[in-house]
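pinned: reference chain
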Amino acid sequence: MRGFFHGRNGTAPSLHSSPRKRANWIRAILWLAALGIVALVIWCSTLYYLITHFKGKPNPGTTVSADVGIVLGATLLNNEPSPGLRERLDHGIDLYRSGAFKSFIVTGGLDNNGATLTEAEGMRNYLVEQGIPESSIVMDSLSRSTYENLSFAQEIMERNDWDAAVVVTHDYHGSRAADIAGKLGYKPVQVSVTRSKVLNMSYHETREILAYTKWLATKMFL
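pinned: its structure tokens
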């Protein structure tokens, strides 16, 4: 029984780790924490680069040709497009009038901000006010995310025998939108973007890092 109750030298084993062992554990934990921080910085920096350097697909200056323009939804204020959403819509109008496409799909469901119109309805109303024929606008009033925007729009395209689309959004949102369109099988992937003059870009670009991370995690299971 001596070997069971006593250490090699016949003394009882210590109930606590030695100071050196504790120091080694602390050092290992600090190294792991430092590596985690470095990995996080690299990850965020890579996504930030993708977000801030996206200028459109195909590259700016290349002629965009499609059957339909898909304007991705954003917040309404008092049932009207917010200033940021108007920028997307105005960019879509410019493309439409340049002959890039002949029809619109406007996307977005009901906001949780007291709106009584869906994002798509508010966008449709704005386009009509700007002289776009209502017959040229199709609404997706159910989607609640960029993935759903593009997925539901794809179903609308199939019902209307439209083959090619150009996605219209802001530049900070363009890289993720292009990646989602590619995952959904859009061919070709075309994303035309505008730079905001009214949005707090530091906030939106930082928020987009989180949204992009969430999308890439979700993408692995699709």
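why pinned: The chain has a mean pLDDT of 92. The longest helix spans residues 19-52.
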